[in-house]
Amino acid sequence: MKTYYRRNLPHILPPGALIFFTFRLDGSLAASTLQQLADERELAIQQAILHASSLHQQAEAIAKINKLRFATYDALLDGATQGPRWLSEPAVAKLVGAEIHRLEELDVIVLAYCLMSNHVHLVVQLPTAPGFSAARMMQRLKGRTALEANKLLCRQGLTFWRHESYDHVVRNEKELERVIAYVLNNPVKAGLVDDWTKWPYSYVR
Q1: How far apart are CA 131 and CA 112, in angstroms?
Q2: What is the extent of the structural domain holding 58?
Q3: Opening angle at CA 191, ends 35 and 141, nearest 5
Q4: What is the DSSP letter of 109?
């Protein structure tokens, strides 16, 4: 096996930041599943606050909880047997990939991405311009791809993407390497290929 080494979720994303986004198709996870994840996270955070001896320890515990929650969330998406899988359609995947690359028209640097059947992982560096809005960037990406994908799928007017996106600020080069490896190895981890280079819907700069 060859691996690569190297809205409801509000965040303030600083200019020039390295950001890891994950966004998914609408209906790809059941509402009951999402509620269970949210309830478990809330309980874990309450326990962390109760047992932390300092604000620093509290922050570290919450960061770990969020990391574990995301891993569970991503595994559920990879293992989903119900819900839409529009991104497995080659024409849809092609247009989403092309629109991701068009983000560079906004001076966004696209570092890596992976399109799975029901979700997308994307790593970018935002422009340094202080007026740049990551929220508007994602709105543009989702809006354009939803419109064109729905045309291809003959489902005009229907919701394509789930409205919220997960985002994480990558703090340093070492973490960036880990995040990119995670993104590119997603199809390997999901058992779809045995070599990350065989997945047709991935990119690394």
Answers
A1: 24
A2: 29-79
A3: 60
A4: E
Residue with the two structure tokens 């986004």: 21
* CATH code of the domain containing 147: 3.30.70.1290
What does DSSP assign to residue 75?
Answer: H
User: Does residue 66 sit in the same domain as residue 140?
Assistant: no
Q: Report which residue type is found at 1.
A: M
Q: In this structure, are 88 and 151 located in the same domain?
A: yes
Is there a single domain that holds both residue 18 and residue 110?
A: yes
Per-residue pLDDT in tens (0 to 9) along the chain, 205 residues: 444 444 444 455 677 889 999 999 999 988 888 888 888 888 888 887 887 778 878 778 778 887 888 888 888 898 888 899 999 999 999 999 999 999 999 999 999 999 999 999 999 999 988 888 898 999 999 999 999 999 999 998 899 999 888 888 898 889 999 999 999 999 999 999 999 999 999 999 9
Query: Tokens 């199809």 — which residue?
Result: 187
Coil vs helix vs strand at 23: strand
